[in-house]
Amino acid sequence: MKITLDWLCDHLDGDFSVADVVATLNRIGHEVEGVENPAGKLAGFRVAKVLTAEKHPQADKLQVLTVDTGEGVLQVVCGAPNARAGLVGVLGLPGAVVPANGMELKVAAVRGVESNGMMCSTRELELGDDHDGIIELPADAPVGTPFADYAQANDPVVDISITPNRQDCMGVRGIARDLAAAGLGTLKPLDVPTIIGEGAPATEIATLDPEACPAFFGRTISGVTNGVAPEWMRRRLEAVGQRSISALVDISNYVMFDLGRPSHIYDRAKLTGALVARRAMDGETVTALNGKDYVLTDTMTVIADDREVHDIAGIMGGEHSGCSETTTDVLIEIAYFTPERIALTGQALGLSSDARSRFERGVDPAFLDDATAIVTAHILNICGGNPSTATRAGTPPAEVKTIDYDPALSATLGGIAIAPDRQKDILAALGFGVIEQGGRWQVSVPSWRRDMDGAPDVVEEVTRITGFDAIASAPLPRADGVAKPTATPEQLVERRLRRAAAAAGFDEAVTWSFISEADAAPFGGGAWSLANPISEDLKVMRPSLLPGLLAAAARNRNRGADSIRLFEIGRRYLADAEHPTLGVLMAGDKSARGWQAGKAAPFDAFDAKAAALALLEAAGAPADRLQVMEAVTGGNIWHPGRSATLRLGPKAVLAEFGALHPALTRAFDVDGPVMAVQIFLDAIPAKRASGPARAAFAPPALQSVRRDFAFLAATSLTAADLVRAIRGADKAAIVDARLFDRFAGQGVPEGQVSLAVEVELQPAEKSFTDAELKAIADKVVAAAAKAGATLRG
Amino acid sequence: MSDIEAIRAQLLGDIEAAADAGAVEALRVAALGKAGSITALLKTLGAMSPEERQAQGPAIHGLREAVTAALAARKEVLDAAALDIRLAAEAIDMTLPADASPRGSVHPVSQVMDELAEIFADMGFAVATGPEIEDDWRNFTALNIPETHPARAMHDTFYFPAQMNDAEGRAMLLRTHTSPVQIRTMMSQEPPIRIIAPGRVYRSDSDATHTPMFHQVEGLVIDRGIHMGHLKWTLETFLKAYFERDDIVLRLRPSYFPFTEPSAEVDVGYKQEKGRRIVGGNGDDEGHAWMELLGSGMVNRRVIANCGLDPDEWQGFAFGVGVDRLAMLKYGMDDLRAFFDGDLRWLAHYGFGALSVPTLSGGVSA
Fold first, then answer.
1. Chain A to chain B, count of Cβ pairs less than 8 Å apart?
2. In what order do the strands lie in the sheet with A316-317?
3. A596 touches chain B (CB under 8 A)
4. CA distance A550 to A616
5. Spatial CA neighbour of A627 closest among A644, A643, A639
6. What is the pLDDT of residue A621?
7. What are the phi and psi torsion angles at A343 (to 5°)?
8. Over the range A558-581, which residues count as b (16 or more CB within 10 Å of their CB) and which as e?
9. Could you report the per-residue pLDDT of B257-269, keeping only the tens digit for each?
10. What one-character-per-residue DSSP string does B153-217 give?
11. Residue A115 in contact with residue A166, Cβ under 8 Å?
């Protein structure tokens, strides 16, 4: 919402500057987004009189003028055909910047004759399109006056962000009222003219939809002339960003910006029969003033005559019943529309307008008769004509809202202690009434303040007018002692994982929660697909963290990154819920080529496994009880032979890891093998809370003993199965078993593999005897045999 | 000169002149071996009379000890020299590069969220979370934003199609703010409540300063007797701790949010230095200005009642601020879109080391 200072002074008496207005508006809750003074660009231009005009000695089309600037006489070279002695025009002095082209004027020689400025055309000053000659002002224009003052352009425009609850401030007068309440000037009384109409309106009006349009007031005027609105009105409208169209349209707009009151003026020549507010019929169409066609439904309200729809009620008029230069008879519509209905219709049609934004916030229901009179008076003043009597169909809601209020609330809720008398003054200045009833107040709400809902709103009124600077900081009460820990176990797991992943050399990325359908497809597609995505690339909620990381890897590869280690902690969005997840991606080189190692080394699936295990351990998962099992996910996500899951028992999948399927990495344009991990944080069992103390422990007194065993087994025997069997061979003595060699080839029969395992034995009270060691070794061999491995001879 | 003296002189001279370990060993054998010269002298002791032995014994033993010590000393010298030679041969250009271990980093958004958790924990606030796919009741209606409210148009909301409506028929959407966590917390937890709720939020908006996904942190206090003064103190205390400056000055301006009443926009004073906004100072002072930082207010009675609490008993405040924006203001990034690109160069520059854990004792921007 824009206002001009001059316009504001129509409603507000007092001595204040635009800076005062801006500061006060900001202070009382009307954020100023900008101030612009059109006079700024006219600085350095002044009214000047041509004293003499001689032909330029070197150029036929130029003249050499002597010009009275009011402070002396300057020589100016001019090419305009209308330049002549006696002309009063506009002179740009050296240093002035020509608005139309940004050129700074300087003292310069023009074809050998010194010129000390420029006589300007309308176009050069961006005041119009005329460039046939220089501006000709009336002969009595005061020479030497800054042109901005002469042209009354010195009127700063203040752009205000009006919050959606304050429709009453969507007009200059409402802003003036708030400013006056805040002590900036005095609100002038509103001048409501008395209109003496003759005869009933020539067009009958009615409302057949009292729920959406409880009141439809109006009047007809015959014999109007729809010319150009007066200069002052056009200047104001244009200053606030409203193009001037014709006197009648400008009047309607002017009253809307001035008083926050939309109206509609119909050309009666285009109407047939009575004009009524009614529900639209399903499928009914209208071409609105913006030139677009709208298909209506029976939830929408229209203003229509016997033949067709002329107005989408409260939102936008119809194109063909608007006023034109041939209009002579008009009907003024001043209606009250139910805000919720306007909002729903506007949303359904996707149509916004100045009228809608006011009606859907709720215009003043007590300001229909006066608005009709004011619009009529403007028309009579500007366009002439003969008014009918006013007519009223329906009645606007007239309920006066009263709020029970305790003045102590300004302190106990608003944080500012304001004397009750001062509160009363503020409320009175804003149009509220106060009746005291034993310490509590009954505050009656003015008709234009539909936003007032309860006592806190009254607190806001008295505190905002006082100014929030008066709020004194008050410490929140602090619990005794050191601040207690507040993080939940889930939050702690996430924090630990994040730091562990970073410590392991991974960079944390944050990628979009939504991805394209194509990127989601290999992961089973997205369960959640947006109805109104911002683009096809950001359409479905990700079912996996891998697509986002792959896309990030591809971007990094394209920028020449050799080694990519990325992770992200975020959610996967599945049909049932959102699942917190850690994703890890490794692409490119694991280690760069070097003078020691030689060639660069790629990542392999065991890098992914190592990362998965280390991170699960950091997350507090019972790492020693995890089993490596086959991958579960279908599709072409993982390399079928180089990926697996980590589970607790057969069902609880805590992580998946391995090499990604080449078809997937190709689809994301990432070259070479790519390793990945996903850890499902919500599958990790919560640690039992057991207090800070650890289980009792003393390191064994005796040193452990290590024995190596080599077995032959079918290649189908997994390392995990063999090691598990060996560990179980003698649970008292064997504390660890680790596979340290795997070999197939020469010396090993076809289809078999040699597996070497180091077994760690821990003696308890006394060292193992040879016989005991032999017995344990026999158990190991027997257990391995049971698993399908025979001791190598 | 006696024999013994002659042998001593000879042997010690030879030992001193021994050129390598082999020569030292040969001299040892020649002197102290089975057939060695000193061994022979020692053997003569047995045949001597007690008086002779008394006289010769110490001299011969003295010779043996002197030669033994000289051999050891010489060997040590020669070993040391040999080691020096070997080590000299092992010399290598120590300016050659070592294998780099990958550094890894924590994203600034995560770091800032950790900082916020640390600061607010000291003020007794817990961290609460909620789903990002929300229903329109919690995202709008419960927050006093009815369907026809113009404020709904202020949020460019991402919706899911009607077939995704929840069991109660509520439309599902991507939360436009972290405020629905207020609703969830008040409905599941007895007051007094002090929480912050950081997380991803979504609006259908994309330009240089807006991305369709960004991060917000919500703050909520519900208790008895809470007023705007507590809100102001909390924001001041938080921002002073976060920016690690005591000269943070806030300007509260009345504003409007459907879920708070009264509502305030909060500006913070700053000055422009070398093209960057440096938070601090009074925005009205010379060279300073105000920038809008966050929205806040006293929780609307209707919101409290919608959550099943008695608004005559409980009141409190709420605020919301952009996490990405806080990060940008503190750490100096200027492009929001870069936050979500995963560019390794950006992450290496703006990210944080794994061990840079924000703590109160070490400073939140550890």
1. 258
2. A205-207, A275-279, A301-304, A309-312, A316-317
3. yes
4. 22
5. A644
6. 92
7. -60, -45
8. eeebebbbbbbbbbbbbeeebebb
9. 999 999 999 999 9
10. HHS---B--GGG--TT-PPEEE-SSSTHHHHHHHHHSPSSEEEEEEEEEE-S--BTTB-SEEEEE
11. no
| Dihedral sign from CA coordinates of A342, A346, A351, A354 | positive
- Rounded to 10 degrees, what is the CA torsion of A192, A196, A201, A206? 40
Do residues A2 and A258 make contact, with C-beta atoms less than 8 angstroms apart?
Answer: no
- Report the first-to-last Cα separation within chain B, whole angstroms: 81
Angstroms from B12 CA to nearest CA on chain A:
49
| The pLDDT value given to residue B154 | 57
CATH number of B106-353: 3.30.930.10
Spatial distance between the Cα atoms of B182 and B260, rounded to a whole number of angstroms: 12
Residue A160's identity, in one-letter code, is: I
Q: ipTM of this model?
A: 0.89
Positions of chain A with pLDDT lower than 70, given as ranges:
128-129, 632-634
Specify the pLDDT at position A415: 96
User: Domain residue spans in chain B?
Assistant: 2-89, 106-353
Mean pLDDT by groups of 10 residues along chain B of 366 residues: 77 89 90 86 83 83 87 92 93 91 95 96 94 96 85 77 92 95 96 96 87 96 97 97 95 95 96 91 94 96 96 96 96 93 97 94 81
Distance between alpha carbon A379 and the CA centroid of its chain, in Å?
A: 41
End-to-end CA distance of chain A: 94
Q: Which of B107, B174, B225 sits opposite A412 (nearest CB)?
A: B225
Contacts of B187 (CB under 8 A, 6+ apart): B307, B308
The model's pLDDT over A333-381, given as tens digits with 9 standing for 90+, comes to 999 999 999 999 998 998 999 999 999 999 999 999 999 999 999 999 9
The pair of structure tokens assigned to A364 is 């003043």
Residues 6+ apart with CB under 8 A from A549: A509, A511, A566, A567, A568, A583, A584, A585, A676, B342
pLDDT score recorded for residue A367: 96
Contacting residues for A340 by C-beta, under 8 A, at least 6 apart: A360, B146, B148
Note the pLDDT of residue A125. Answer: 82
Q: Does A351 touch chain B (CB under 8 A)?
A: no
Helix, strand, coil % over all residues of chain B, rounded to 5: 45, 25, 35
Chain B contact probe: residue of A403, A413, A549 with most B CBs at under 10 A: A413
Token output for A578: 């959102």
